Amino acid sequence: MKKTDIIALGELNVDLILNDINGLPTVGKEIIAEKMVMTLGSSTAIFAANAATLGAEVAFMGMVGHDDFGAFVKNNLRQKGVETSFISESDNYSTGLTVVLSYKEDRANVTYPGAMNFMGINEINGDAIKNAKHVHISSLFMQEALHRDIVGILKLIKKSGATISLDTQWDPSEKWDLDYRQILPMVDVFMPNETELKALTRTDNIKDAIERIRDYANVAVIKKGSNGSLMLKQNGELKNLPACININVVDTVGAGDSFNAGFIHAFVKGESLEECQEAGNITGAVNTTAAGGTGAFISKDKVSEIACRQFGKILSL
Ligand SMILES: Nc1ncnc2c1ncn2[C@@H]1O[C@H](COP(=O)(O)OP(=O)(O)OP(=O)(O)O)[C@@H](O)[C@H]1O
Ligand SMILES: [Mg+2]
What we know:
By secondary structure, the protein is an alpha/beta fold. The protein has one domain (4-12, 43-94, 116-311): Ribokinase (UDP-N-acetylmuramoyl-L-alanine:D-glutamate ligase, 3-Layer(aba) Sandwich). It is 33% helix and 25% strand. Bound molecules: adenosine-5'-triphosphate and magnesium ion.
């Protein structure tokens, strides 16, 4: 039986993105956004959709509500070529929603987690995991049950023989309740951004943060926005890769997830870590050329065309 390349394990929700907002919101007042778009949201879904667009065989494992937003999410994933049969529909909880207030270089999000909060180790389909080459987990702190059960889930995946990548994303509670010393040895590719890594390791600079994880991490790749990415290899070598400069950023929603999609697609194909990092920087930059996390990922050819035309890069995936 042919193995699934990647199982994306995590949260599913709808993104309601407001762009061109006239100022910052204030309680008790009202401001206008000039543009609005409703898209497939959630870090893990953007990752899954974009990895599939790049040519990987991707299945999603997650939970939505038995409602219109849930159907919207599943339809969108299917249209992107993502297998959705491992997504369960809850009768008790609604599909999650994120309202994104998007400003030029960053954004403020408000999320209602909904059904995604209730997917723990008991909802994991062990047979599907056994049939996957790689499992990507994202947004750990946004999902209560996944966060609670993460050690058991990582052990289960490890036992099945799949490789694992983890992007914790931000912890809305800012407690950063995760023992990286216990977790990281089980994670093949750790993919936080700079701010998240500093918060998780309780340091105020990236150099110290890397020292904290050095003895526990396999490969870590730290995303630095318009400064590109920094990779820590298992032999301790550090590799900094400047970003592909985009002077016309539309928005940066999902840049990190698109970086993950490019990197992990290359990783599963057995490319060198340097090629994986290069692919991640390119797909992260391509993401910033259109609205939302999947807007620039129309097809693999289109992604390659943007990479070549706008950044002078060949996407060899
Ligand atoms: N303005 C930009 N110009 C060019 N490349 C960018 C830009 N912003 C991000 N990237 C690329 O995308 C990668 C990931 O972006 P970023 O560092 O913002 O991730 P993140 O903080 O995890 O994002 P997310 O909010 O999507 O989780 C960067 O490492 C970089 O290679
Ligand atoms: Mg991120």
